[in-house]
Amino acid sequence: MTPFRISFHVPGDPVPKQRARANPGGKGYYAPRPRGSKRLSYMEYRELVQVQLICALDDQGIRPDYRDRVFPKISWGLTVRAKLGVGDFDNVAGSVADACQGFLYKDDKQVLEAHQYLERVGPKALRGVDVECWTLDASGGKALERAR
Questions:
Q1: pTM for the full model?
Q2: Using CA atoms, how far apart are residues 125 and 107, in angstroms rounded to an integer?
Q3: Most buried of the four, 19, 25, 31, 118, by CB within 10 Å?
Q4: Apex CA 55: angle with CA 43 and CA 76, to 5°?
């Protein structure tokens, strides 16, 4: 059995991971974008990544109840290829890794191998992120077969 592999594309401007802010009660939150902003907020971008991931899982016939039974025990690899104008690339990879958390792995500490690629593009060029995730051993593919 070969390791499980999935890839998907996230269109639009990548949004780098933000540092959480704390309110007076000590609870963390991510600031929304200003009113009238054309860019997505960090949380909106995270949801966009998750929607693209769910569609890719659905295309492979993965049932929605697989998560709790299978993926928390598996080590993962992650490749992120981003086309962006400006921005800190490692934070873009961080936002993608965080978005996959809870859908492929329980915690992004399970990502043991990662590759990041960046292409700077002009203001009128198409932007987006290509993501590829894979299990690092064949047991991930076997466990996934049982979950289908």
A1: 0.78
A2: 34
A3: 118
A4: 75
